[in-house]
Amino acid sequence: MAKTLFDKIWDSHIVKSQAGHPDALFIDMHFIHEVTSPQAFDGLRKRNIPVFMPHRTRATADHNVPTKDQHLPIKDAISKFQVDKLTENTTAFGVELFGLGHPFQGIVHVIGPELGITQPGMTIVCGDSHTSTHGAFGTIAFGIGTSEVEMVLATQCVLQYRPKTMRITIDGKLSRGVLSKDIILYVIAQISAAGGTGYFVEFAGSAIRDLSMEARMTVCNMAIEMGARGGLIAPDEKTFEYVKNREFSPKAGEWDKKLAAWKNLYSDADAKFDKEYTFDAAAIQPMITYGTNPGMGVGVSDRLPLENEINPTELLSFKKSLEYMGLQSGQQMIGKAIDYVFIGSCTNSRIEDLRLVAEFVKGKKKADGVEVWIVPGSKQVEKQAQKEGIDKILKEAGMELREPGCSACLGMNEDKVPAGKYSVSTSNRNFEGRQGPGARTFLVSPLTAALAAVTGKVQDIRKFI
Fold first, then answer.
1. 226 assigned to some structural domain
2. Tell me, what DSSP letter sits at residue 279?
3. Can you list the alpha helix ranges (DSSP code H) found in 263-350?
4. What's the CA gap between 399 and 101, in Å, rounded?
5. Which of 91, 244, 302, 328 has its CA 20 to 30 A from that of 99?
6. DSSP string, 187-222
């Protein structure tokens, strides 16, 4: 019987299945951080049970950490408590921690792939919705709640109902200046922020295959933003080459055995999906969001929708979003002045992202009055950026390469956008107050963000490269 890639991985990890009940799914790798793990460890203590397979859990500090002066004590009391608690819990339960000061510390969804922990065919969970990032390697990766974090720590399994399957195919060539972030923002704008609800999405097509691994991670990272349970891409030679020779990747003879198995990870030619979409890569332009969910996006040179173009059931939300954002229906985004630029997050903080930004801003200066935060996704990314002189290029442009962390993706640390200010951001969510109470967020690609940093306004990158 023909199977999708999702079904092949899911079926091979079922420990127990019973009609009308969720499947008990074995989890190959469990990532944890300081925000969603403390209550889970407390649950283990109350029941006096250990972590069942500590070698299958990796921890890092990312959400609450400052991105400046990480060698000093954390100033915010709540953040410090959570980070300290992670150290205490991982020590007590024998879980490996990449904490502040560790050479492998960074955003959980950045360090997993770059360290070779993330490998094709795995099941991966984390108490973080953007765990879908790891799906770029042909894995079933999804976020779980704190009670489920405890369940995985205790049993190395999680109870899950099997989602439906969706395939989104993007064929053709992208226009110059259009990046993977634009692909996923375009797809979400087309099918809505709820269009993938109930599905696990496989991204396919020539435009997806042409992407680098880091670009594929960006696409899968935001699968959750269309309501999907997760997203994945079939592994290929690019995948295998990326994983090879990393810190925790299979070594010597084990590599050959793993590689042989990974080459069978694809959807069979006659596999049936519950739903399919197909898009033309040439139709995608640099994207920008204008509202308060990632589905409210347009091509950067397009006008915002008019009220009579909005589905009546969504009109109230549309009006509320525009009021919050201080925008009007039918308005052009080009020329809109901005206050902050944030380049970072688990969506766009990898070395390729920083290289794109550095290449564009080299020889330029940031606009007066614009605050620019450029935050690498890990210590390894930071180290590589320094090795390549990216930090110096940014400094000459009046910008600063900070230290790794989730930073201004969410208002859980010191990097908050003030109320009423406009932020052009490479992160994944533009919810009300996501980057700080009252902050207004436009989601864009790293290139569009770099352009905003030097011009001080929203512009079309295609006219500048």
1. yes
2. E
3. 315-325
4. 23
5. 244
6. HHHHH-TTTTTTEEEEEESHHHHTS-HHHHHHHHHG
* Whether 257 and 309 share a structural domain: no
Instruction: Report the C-alpha gap between 413 and 74 in whole angstroms.
Output: 10
pLDDT tens-digit map of 377-413: 999 999 999 999 999 999 999 999 999 999 999 989 9
Residues 268 and 292 in one domain: no
Among the candidates 209, 242, 275, a domain finishes at 275
In a domain, 282, yes or no: no
Note whether residue 322 is domain-resident: yes
Q: How far is CA 111 from CA 31, 182, 364, in A?
A: 10, 23, 31
Enumerate the β-bridge partners of residue 213: none
Chain segment 129-169, per-residue pLDDT in tens: 999 999 999 999 999 999 999 999 999 999 999 999 999 99
Name the band, by pLDDT with cuts 50, 70 and 90, for residue 253: confident
Q: What is residue 289's predicted lDDT score, i.e. its pLDDT?
A: 98
CA distance 437 to 372: 19
Does 307 share its domain with 421? yes
Give residue 315's Cα distance to chain centre. 29
- CATH number of the domain bearing residue 109: 3.30.499.10
Give the chain's domain count: 2
Strands 230-232 and 440-443: unpaired
- Mean pLDDT of the 106-121 span: 98
Burial pattern 292-319, b for ≥16 Cβ within 10 A else e, equals bbbbbbbbbbeebbeeeeeeeeeeeebe
Same-domain pairing of 354 and 448: yes
* Domain-ending residue, one of 249, 275, 301: 275
Q: Domain residues for 212?
A: 5-275
pTM for the predicted model, two decimal places:
0.97
Whole-angstrom Cα distance, residue 57 to residue 372? 35
What distance in Å separates the CA atoms of residue 356 and residue 446, rounded to the nearest whole number? 7
Nearest CA-CA partner of 120 in 238, 33, 3:
238
Angle between helices 213-221 and 351-361 (to 10 degrees): 100
User: Is 280 part of any domain?
Assistant: no
Residue 308 Cα distances to 195, 245, 311, angstroms: 21, 55, 8
